[in-house]
Amino acid sequence: MVASACLPRVGTAQDSKTRLILLGTGGGPRPRRSSSAPAQVIVVNNAAYVVDCGDGVARQLVLAGVPLAQLRHVFVTHQHSDHNADYGNLLLLAWTAGLRTRVDAWGPPPLEQMTTLFFEMNSYDIRTRIADEDRVPLRPLIHVHELIDGGLVVEDDSVRVTAALVDHPPVVPAFAYRFDTPDRSIVVSGDTKPSEALIELARGADVLVHEALYDAAAVDRLVAAVPNAARLKQSIVSHHTTAEEAGRSAQRAGVGTLVLSHLIPAEDSLVTEQMWIDAARTHFAGTVVVGKDLLEI
Ligand SMILES: [Zn+2]
Ligand SMILES: [Zn+2]
Which long-range contacts (CB under 8 A, 24 or more apart) does 216-221 make? Predict the structure, then answer.
């Protein structure tokens, strides 16, 4: 068990109030041994802002030491299952863990329909627990906001959240999010090809968490065992950003720290941590961090 106090820390904001924890750093929906599906949490003033809800996100929050009852906002970058498979489960399981306060959920359509259908699917359990365990009704706590364009998403006393439309065909819209807190600015790319809109959003940020693909040969190894290998490879290579290109975007945006996450491939002994770093450093002069589950930055 990893206690939050023991999590490795990197970067320059060790004593700041804003915490960024990578919850899941492997790209793609296929469950893996060594990395969870994409998710990260930003914690400010005891409120958790979760970005993406890959498989296992609630469990990863527990392992990171973030109380589920602190869940305040959920941001979905786009509607691919490696980013939304546990969206509903996060809401439900946070409620079972003691959540009694409002949660706002933000993301592309059909987020509203997904939420409605999820609660319908789980209505028996929710109804039973309200009657049997004296819990507050769950559905009224959840406020869904569908996003179709970039710009200001939400602003409160702790955080200003803005979004940019990124380029991840055929999934439209797909968003990157920027979080400006009193002490830090953090950008999460979501999934995207190299994107001018992302570079603008990330301009001058302290930390850019960017998705990263290693190279075509690594993708060949990744898809080797699946029946739809050729089409899947074409999809992966054309909808994502290489680590080298992520470094180029980070350099152009002038960010301080580039965090490579949503790694493709996530488990490949032929692609070492140093190789990821070297690829990103081809064009980026700042700090490069290779994402690992439960790493705090
Ligand atoms: Zn993805
Ligand atoms: Zn995607």
Answer: 218/264, 218/265, 218/268, 218/270, 218/271, 219/264, 219/265, 221/265, 221/268, 221/270
CA atoms within 13 A of residue 285's CA, in its CB half-sphere: 4
The CB-side HSE value for 68 (13 A sphere, CA atoms) comes to: 19
List of E strands, 158-292? 160-166, 174-180, 185-188, 207-213, 257-264, 287-290
Within 8 A by CB and 6+ apart from 117, the residues are: none
Whether 82 is catalytic is yes
Partners of 41 in beta bridges: 21, 50
Distance CA 13, CA 25 (A): 21
- Note whether 66 and 97 are within 8 A (CB): no
* Ligand 2 center–CA 236 separation, angstroms: 9
- Residue-by-residue pLDDT tens, the chain, 297 positions: 333 444 444 444 444 599 999 999 999 999 999 999 999 999 999 999 999 999 999 999 999 999 999 999 999 999 999 999 999 999 999 999 999 999 999 999 999 999 999 999 999 999 999 999 999 999 999 999 999 999 999 999 999 999 999 999 999 999 999 999 999 999 999 999 999 999 999 999 999 999 999 988 888 888 888 889 888 888 888 899 999 999 999 999 999 999 999 999 998 889 999 999 999 999 999 999 999 999 999
Give residue 137 CA to ligand 2 midpoint distance, Å. Answer: 33
Catalytic option among 82, 86, 206, 293: 82
H or E segment to which residue 278 belongs = helix 273-281
Q: Which ligand is nearest to the CA of 213?
A: 1
Instruction: Give the pTM.
Output: 0.93
